[in-house]
Specification:
Shape: elongated
Largest sheet: 6 strands, mixed
Helix content: under 10%
Number of strands: 37
CATH topology of the largest domain: Immunoglobulin-like
CATH architecture of the largest domain: Sandwich
CATH superfamily of the largest domain: Immunoglobulins
Structural class: mainly beta
Distance between the termini: 227 Å
CATH class of the largest domain: Mainly Beta
Strand content: over 45%
Number of helices: 3
Radius of gyration: 52 Å
């Protein structure tokens, strides 16, 4: 019995020691001021051990609830670290942070309330619990955001006349207030010089209400009217709420010539690696075009061709076109294409130019075709005269003939050129002729071109193919340009006549050497004559009668001489 009393007393004393270590979490000593969306708020509070028996506790663990606010909005529960040991009668300061949601998770303005629960782990075992209610206030902010596009990252639409193009964009309320009656406007000049216009439309046409964190998908369509000039039409699109909250983005509409006849269709995608937008090229310069074409589909695509053409926006016409050889592209594979395009000599450098590029399945463009474009700047060099054309007339002759060589030159530079000289040259033929010096006006003026004519006698025996060089010298004799034309020369060596009779004829030949050293052959022909043909000539008849008389006299003499005499 005595043992039972002693045990009961010990348990009682231990229980007194346990309850004497008491956890006390005080209200925040630093109440956060109203916070903006996305801001990190720090909550500071005191932790006390109000026990008196000197036991204390080893550590305190904390867990917070989510913070609830107006209109069903809430803030996720923050993470709170544990606190260390604390003796009876001691206190410490502890803190944690709360992040105010933003963007697509934005919450409405107002007061958000959470509860912090603490559990103290007492020395020797046992726990003590306490809790604290705390609040965070979210400030009012009006934020409207067009998610995909900005004033530096434009939405790009492209279509030909009597066609349309569309893209979607997301309008999101990233503020802490409700936005209403959001409408769409723009400042684009959508009418060309002839009064033809582009129509923009939005679906939906407006947004009635957009709560914090809520978003709506909007489709923007550009309908290109008939005969709208090929050009780039750009400006800004605005999304504005009734309270004046606004966001905007840049819109570029390219009215193009017909590139892909049905627009972008199929599984091909294209990337123009070179040239870049606004790259500069000089007249007559060769442009390197590098294009990567991707087959994004699950089937192989055969005979994929890349076509590039330089387009003069001011004249609304193609000025030069180049096309690649066809290539087969396997599924989920890509191929690099390299093309070269020479800027024509006759373009107006003051005009605006676009390089249009398309990749398409040859013969099935309506199944697979994709297009893209870059703007190009065309410049005139300060000094540049080119041989625009060289012609040889006739281009095929016999040796010893006369030919005419015409050389057309063009000043494509930005300066006038004085003392321009044209030459025609071929060393094998002994051809070297020069024009008189002349002047050319700067490129683009009426006097920027000239034509020089030369005549030449092709030497005998000069059979073969010859490259005739036309060379222009300019910039005070320091620069030259050349172009070439081909001359074909043949030299016949034998002429014969085939007899029409069955009687063979004899054709003696005599070979001589020409002054140029080439051997030539003369041919003489003998035709047989019949006896009747000879009798038709009077002189032949006279000699025939004389011959007959002489034969008769000879016969008489022989008879006299060889007849025996009678005695």
């Amino acid at each position: 019995m005595k043992k039972l009393i002693i045990l009961t007393l010990a348990v009682f004393l231990i229980s007194l020691g346990v309850v004497s270590a008491v956890l006390d979490i005080n209200s925040p000593v630093d109440v956060p001021s109203p916070a903006n969306l996305g801001q990190v708020v720090t909550v500071t509070f005191d932790v006390d051990d109000t026990g008196t028996n000197g036991v204390g506790y080893d550590s305190v663990d904390f867990v917070s609830t989510a913070l609830t606010g107006p209109s069903g909005y809430s803030i996720s529960a923050p993470s709170v670290s544990s606190d260390g040991a604390l003796a009876d009668g001691a206190s410490t300061t502890h803190q944690f942070t709360v992040t105010i949601p933003s963007g697509a998770s934005a919450v409405i303005a107002g007061v958000y309330t959470g509860t912090l629960n603490g559990t103290a782990n007492l020395v020797g075992g046992g726990t003590s619990n306490d809790s604290m209610v705390y609040t965070v206030t979210v400030a009012s902010q009006n934020i409207l955001n067009v998610v995909e596009f900005t004033n530096t990252s434009a939405m790009e639409l492209a279509a030909k006349e009597d066609d349309s193009d569309s893209k979607t964009f997301t309008v999101r309320n990233e503020g802490s207030t409700v936005l209403s009656n959001i409408v769409f406007t723009n400042d684009l000049d959508l009418t060309d010089d002839d009064g033809d216009s582009i129509a923009l439309s939005f679906s939906p046409t407006s947004i009635t209400t957009l709560n914090p964190g809520q978003s709506t998908l909007v489709t923007l369509t550009a309908d290109i009217g008939s005969d709208v000039d090929v050009d780039n039409y750009d400006g800004t699109v605005f999304a504005t709420s009734s309270g004046g909250t606004q966001d905007s983005f840049k819109l570029e509409i390219d009215v193009t010539p017909e590139v892909c006849k049905d627009g972008n269709v199929g599984d091909l995608s294209i990337s123009i690696d070179n040239p870049d937008d606004d790259d500069e090229f000089e007249i007559s310069e060769e442009m390197d075009i590098d294009v990567n074409v991707d087959n994004d589909g699950s089937d192989d695509i055969s005979d994929v061709v890349v076509e590039a053409f330089l387009y003069d926006l001011d004249k609304a016409k193609k000025v030069e076109t180049v096309e690649s050889d066809p290539e087969d592209i396997d599924e989920n594979d890509d191929i690099d294409y390299e093309l070269k395009l020479t800027v024509p000599n006759d373009v107006d450098a003051d005009n605006e130019f676009v390089l249009f590029i398309k990749a398409f399945e040859d013969g099935d463009e309506d199944d697979n075709c994709v297009q893209d474009s870059v703007t190009i700047e065309i410049d005139r060099p300060a000094n540049e005269v080119i041989v625009d054309e060289i012609t040889v007339l006739p281009s095929s002759v016999v040796c010893g003939s006369n030919i005419e060589i015409n050389v057309d030159v063009l000043n494509v530079g930005d300066d006038d050129e004085d003392d321009v000289l044209v030459e025609v040259i071929n060393d094998a033929l002994g051809l070297s002729q020069k024009s008189s010096k002349f002047d050319l006006d700067k490129g683009g003026d009426s006097g920027d071109d000239a034509s020089q004519k030369f005549t030449f006698t092709v030497p005998k025996g000069a059979s073969g193919s010859y490259s005739i060089e036309g060379k222009v010298t300019f910039k005070n004799g320091r620069d030259t340009n050349s172009d070439f034309a081909t001359l074909i020369v043949t030299c016949p060596t034998t002429t014969s006549t085939t007899p029409t009779t069955t009687t063979p004829s004899v054709q003696p030949t005599t070979q001589t050497t020409s002054p140029t050293g080439a051997a030539t052959t003369r041919v003489s022909e003998f035709v047989p004559v019949t006896f009747a043909d000879q009798l038709k000539k009077p002189q032949n008849m006279f000699w025939l009668i004389g011959d007959v008389v002489l034969v008769v006299i000879a016969l008489v003499l022989l008879k006299v001489l060889f007849t025996p005499r009678r005695l």
